[in-house]
Each structure stands twice: as structure tokens, then as C-alpha cells.
Amino acid sequence: MNSIATAALASWALDARAIALLLLAAFVYLRGWLSVRRLVHDERDGAHLACFLSGLGVLFIATESPLDSFDNLFLSAHMAQHLLLMMIAPPLLLLGHPVVPLLRGLPKQFVKHGLGPFLTWPALRAVLRSLTSPPVAFVLFAISTILWHMPRFYELALGSPLWHGVQHASFFWTGILFWWPIVEPGPGKSHWPRWTAIPLLLAGDIVNTVLSAFFVFSGRVLYPAYEAVRASRMGAQEDQTIAGLIMWVPGSIIYLLPALVIAVRLLSSDRFARPRAIVRVARRASHPPIELTSFRRAAQAIMLLLAIAVMGDGFFGTQVAPLNLAGVLPWIHWRALSLLALLIVGNLFCLACPFTLVRDIGRKFLPARLRWPRWLRTKWLSAALLLLYLWAYEALGLWNSPWLTASVIAGYFLAALVIDGAFRGASFCKYVCPIGQFHFVSSLVSPREVRVRSAAVCKSCTTYDCIRGNQHARGCELFLFQPKKASNLDCTFCLDCVKACPHDNVAILPVAPASTLTVDPYRSSIGRLSKRTDFAAITLLIVFGAFLNAAGMIAPVMAWEHRLHARFGAHAMPWIIAALVLCGAVAAPALAVLICGAVNRRGLDTARRFVFTLVPIGIAMWAAHLLFHFANALRLPAVIAPAQILLLDAGLLLSIYIGWRVAKDYAARALMIPWAALSCVLYGAGIWILFQPMQMRGMLH
Amino acid sequence: MKFAALFLFVTIRLYADGGSVLLRQQSNGFLLTVFGTPQVGTADISVLVQNASDRSPILDAEVRLRTADFSARATHEQATNKLLYAALVDLPRAGKYHLQVQVASNGKTAVADGVLDVAPAAPSWIAYWPYFALVPAAMLLFVLNQWLKNRRVRRPEARPSPHCDR
Questions:
Q1: Residue A8's closest chain B neighbor by CA?
Q2: How many CA atoms lie within 13 A of B158 on its CB side?
Q3: Which residues 6+ apart lie within 8 Å of A53 measured at CB?
Q4: End-to-end alpha-carbon separation of chain B, Å?
Q5: Is the ipTM of this complex over 0.85?
Q6: pLDDT tens digits, one per residue of A474-492
Q7: Chain B residues closer than 8 Å to A649 by CB
């Protein structure tokens, strides 16, 4: 192969966003396809899957391959790309009969409540039916094809990435409309007779033939842009002729072959049989419970080894943070990965907590008989420790001091051992551990929860093993009684209840993120959230702490700190940072709650409930901030900004939605307005912070 | 060394490896085309080097971009389209820059000169407008969703006609 061909084949224009979208479509389809297959077995299932995935593969080739890199230099490359977008990808995707698998692949509640009203909207259904009728589909397809090949519009697309995108999108979507009545992907039967597909295909071929003949026989270069930049020995006229032939020959085959197949089927004697519609109803398979209990100890052991390695390097290794495990693993990788796990699965860090492993070993020798003092059975102590952490992170430069980091970890092991060695239950996790509180609050937006499968089974239970324990497992050490447990709050995912339940009625099950915040039931060992000021306070601390923690690393704030440092001296800095932390994490949220409460004039209970609506935007900010450090550590800077904005978008929308649901509970929609406004303010602050130059911290070299 | 130069600015906006044609010039047997969308900040400048006689792309050249503010080596590695040579350059201010493209291949060298018109930087958030637009778009869809739900509650499904059973 010559060097030019090699260079051309190496010219892949990979775009992470496009690839992510294609993978997402494949994932949703596959999920739905598997779900349909569990219920109904159809012998064409495999073919459907192959067609859909091939269609996505063709889209990938069209948009990411060298065809895309060369479409502005060679008309022939551009024409091949258009052929894939209009004539290959749409029919393949539709042959995958995608509607049902895609709908079943999405979350059930989203389809029912989110898409349901649209899918059953008569006006929309009528529009879609009209768009996919052969005459309308053909007219739109023909207009799109002819219009974009007119020199004026073609050159417009060639000169602007935006218009180029519009051109490709219109080719693809009108292609979907055109091929819809031909493939008839369902669901439901077409209103048009099957034979109408034949004139439709022939009409499509006529348009295609006329256009390609014009390219081949016009005798002049239609698009001067290609003449201006002749990137090879081939002249623009020659390139145009090849483009016309690509359009003409393969294009005609693509139109005429299906027309022939449909005609033969219509004329054949077994045309009414449609034998492929052999459907066998299969038994619905029950989902086995997710068996994570056996993994817990292994995960804890791995985390313990990592913690020992971090402490060893922190105490005895080089004291340059980016070169030390203690400067990198806890502050960048562990924080980012545990948050990622929270958003994708649930509270996996507490599940794999190394501190509780050491504690469990210690309890074999320690009494653990005392009861945790009643006056400390709140979140105030852990809230104070969390505040202390926010201060120490900046004032003492925790992230920049491997020795200090190692000391904190060692202190954590000691505290867990001493507290839980003396007191009953998991007092350390429930009342002391600030990391645990962060994960408890964050896991309110997790898509999974440890809960009962059937309330009826619990009603018939007389032994209450989930909280009392039995010979197989201890009961919940955080005193969460499963039938009354209504969220991930205070749940360490230790799975003791899963092991203890003799009815196999407790498991890690899916839950809509943050949905448990829309109601305010009595929660086991917690009570009603509207009555718990300590829970509201620690939630506010975590939410506002996200913005404060990120703001501490951006250029404007750091410049301001440097000015204060120069003016007051180094000894004053811890006090200045303390003042900033108190203002940002205590005074600002208190003021915000006061204002929102005053606007609503509904009392403290209502304000406490609405505080939890801020959880999604706060967690989104933590995730967006940690993504910056994590993606930079992985050398993925290009994906950072879009992913950060998308995270904040999702956080804002979820916060407003939860606020709307809570207000609905009070039968007063206006109650949500100040809280939605507060969410918007936090969103704006988050965007501003993320768009500032941010200090890189802890990169492993 | 004498360089024969034919200077022509191409007015057609044609996007290649991240930009429109900035200049196209023939020099000492080479045909050089420079692409880019220069804005203040980091800009991607690409160069297509061709044999002037038959337009075949030259892939083994040494390409360097120079202005008063920067000097950068353009390589295939930095280009998406591997027929081009690309360099990421820092453009500190808006205005006109005198750009010089130096090419060396097979013992022959060539220089092309042109003016690089650098536009002021757009605010970085403008580049991400589709991501920001998601929030109002989602809210709009939610409002529509609620309107449809309420409409269904207000107008329950019509009862079947008593004649249906006959």
C-alpha cells in the first residue's frame, strides 16, 4: 500500500461524543432486546439485533472514519458518506425493529411517565403517521436530496461545520422516514398496502439516477470548492464523475433490490403466511438476587491493602504529593471512583470500607458493650468533622501533604477501632464518620437501594432477622428495620440484612434516583426528614461544600487568597480560610434557607424537606469537580467541559423536579419557586467555577 | 534561493482539518494550502503540501509555521486528516499576523507568506451552547408532558358508543 493510501486510512476523525451516543443507543437497544427476548422468543431476534448493530456500525463509519476526514477534499468521499447516511444506515436500523427494544431498554418509569403522554398523544401520532406515509416520506426525502446537492446549499454546508451537521442530519432523518414504509418496522400494521413500497423505491431511484447522471454528464465542476483545493492528482471533474458513479450504481442497487424482493414476495403463493411471525411466549425468568455478600470481604481486603500502601508511601515515601500514593489515590482516584460508583450503582465505598474490616477484626477482642450516648445520636458531630475536613483540606493542604494524609487515614483506623470496640452497633459509621455521611447523602441519587422485595412477606415475618440477626448473620448495625427503611440514608450496603433475611426478601434493587426524597414517610432509625434539623444541616454542608471545595482551587479565589497572604502573613491564613469556610458552608446555606423559608412562610418543617431537593445539584457539582481532576489524570481533557455541563444540567433538572414533587405533596406548587431559584443560582455558580482556570492537584507521574 | 511565488487568497470558505482555507500559494514547485479558524487562544493550523506539477500530496516534508509571536512545527500526528500537517499554536491577541510557512522536502525548500487574520476569542461558554440549551429544552418538554397528562385527566377517554355492541 502506498504512503498516501496509508495516510488516508489512518485519518479517523474520532469524536468521543458521537461514539458515546452510538454506544448508548447500542446499550439501550441491547437491554431492551434482552428484555423482550425473556418474554417472547422470535426466531428473527438474532437478525434484528445484527441489523440494528450493523446500522450503528455504518453510522460510525460514516461519521468517524476517513470518509469524514476527506469529505471536504473529495466529492467522491463525501458522496460515499451520504450514501451510508441515507441508504444504508436507515434501513439497517429499521430492520432491527427498534421501537419496542428501545422503549423497553429505557427505565420503565421514564417510559411510562416521561414518554408515555407523548407516545399516546393523538396529534403527535397523527403527525408521525403522516410523516411515515409513502407520499410524504418520499417528498421530504427528495427535497432533502435535491436541495442539499444544489451548489449554493452544498457549498454552504462545506464551509460551515454547523450547516454540515444539519445537512447530514437531514439526510439521515429523511432516510429514516423514506425507509420506514418500506421496512415497516412496527409496532402495529402499516395503513398502506404493501405494494406501495415498490413505486416508492422506484421513485427514489429516479431521483437518485437523475442526480447522479447530472454529476457524471454535466461537463462542468458543480462545486468550485473542490476545484479550489485539489488534494490529489485527480481533477475535480474526475472526482465528480466518480462521485456520480458511486451514487448511481450502488444507489440504484440499494433501491431496486428491495423493490424486487417485495414484488417477488407479493407475487409468491405463500405471501399471506408471513411465517416469521412465529412467536412463542416464554416463561418470565426471575432475576437472581445480586450476590454481593461474598465479594464484600474481598473488596474490603483489597481496600485495606491499598490503605496500607498509601499509609506506607505517605509516611516513608517522597513528600512530593504528585509522586506519592497518599497525594494521589485518596484525593483524586478514590474520591472520583467512589462518586462514580454512587451514581452508577450505590454506596460501594461503604460496602468495601477498610476501616470496618479492621474494626470487625478488633471486635473479636474488644467488648463493644456500651451504648452510644443519647445526646450524640445525631449528625451534628459528623457535620462538625465534615466542616473540619473542608477547612483542613485548604488550610493544612491535606491534598499536598502525603504525611498528613497518611496520618488522617491511620487516625481513621484507630477511631473506628476504638469507638466500635467500645460501643455497640456501628456507632462510628452512623454518628461519627464524615466520609460515611457524605456517601449516605450522595447515595440518595443512586439508582440502587437495599430494600425489601415484597412488603407482604415482611408483614408475615415474626422473627425480624434483618434487624435482630440470626446464626448466619448479624442484624443491621445501624438499626435500620428493612420494612420501614425508605432510602439509602444511613445504609452502608454491608448486606448483613440480605444475608440475615430467611425469606430472601431483601436485596439490592433498582430505584429511581432521588425518588425517595419526594415523600416524607417515617424512616426507620431516622424518623421523618422534615423533623431532622441535623440531617438537613449535613445535607446543606455537603451541597454548599461542593461549590466551596471547587472554588478553593480556581484562579480568582487563589489570587485573592494570595493577596490576603501578602497582607496579613502566613500565620493568618488558617484563620482566613476558617472564615471563608464558615461563610461558604455555614452562613451562606443558613441565609439561603432563611430567605427561601421567609418567602414561603411555611415553617421549619417545610424548609427542612425542601433542603433535600438540593442534593442532586450538590452531588452533580462534586462529580463535575472531581471529573476535572480525574479526567486530567487520565489525559482526557477534551471530554471534561461537556461532561461537566451535562452533570450540572442533570443535577439542576433533578433538583427542580424533586422540588416540584415535594411542592405537589403540600398541594402548593408555588412553594418550589424559591428553592428552584436557589438551585439555579447554585447551577450558575457551578458553571462559573468550572469555567475558571483550576489548579491541578495530585497527578501521578 | 529564489522562490517563485504565485499568491492567491482563496475566498471560498472550505473546511478541512478544522478550518477554512487561509491561504494558497505556489512556491518552488510546491503548492501550499493553509487551513484554520484562527481565534485568540489555541488555534489549530493545518497545511497541505502538494507537488505543484501534478497536485500529488507530499507526505515526507518538514513544515514549520512562523509569526512574530510563535514558531511551531506542523506534523501529521497532530492532524486528523493525515495528508495534512497540523500544529496547535497560541495566538495571544486579535488582529493581523504575518504568517510564514516553511517547507523542506527532498532537499528542496519553499516559503509561503500570508496574512493571518485572528478573530477575538468568543466566550468559552458559547462553544457549549447546546449543553446549556438542554435545561430549557427539558423544562419545555416537562411542561408539555404535564399539559398532556392534565388534558387526559380533564378529558377522559370517550365511552364506547352503545351501538358498538349491536
A1: B82
A2: 4
A3: A26, A29, A96
A4: 101
A5: no
A6: 889 999 999 999 889 999 9
A7: 131-132, 134-135, 138
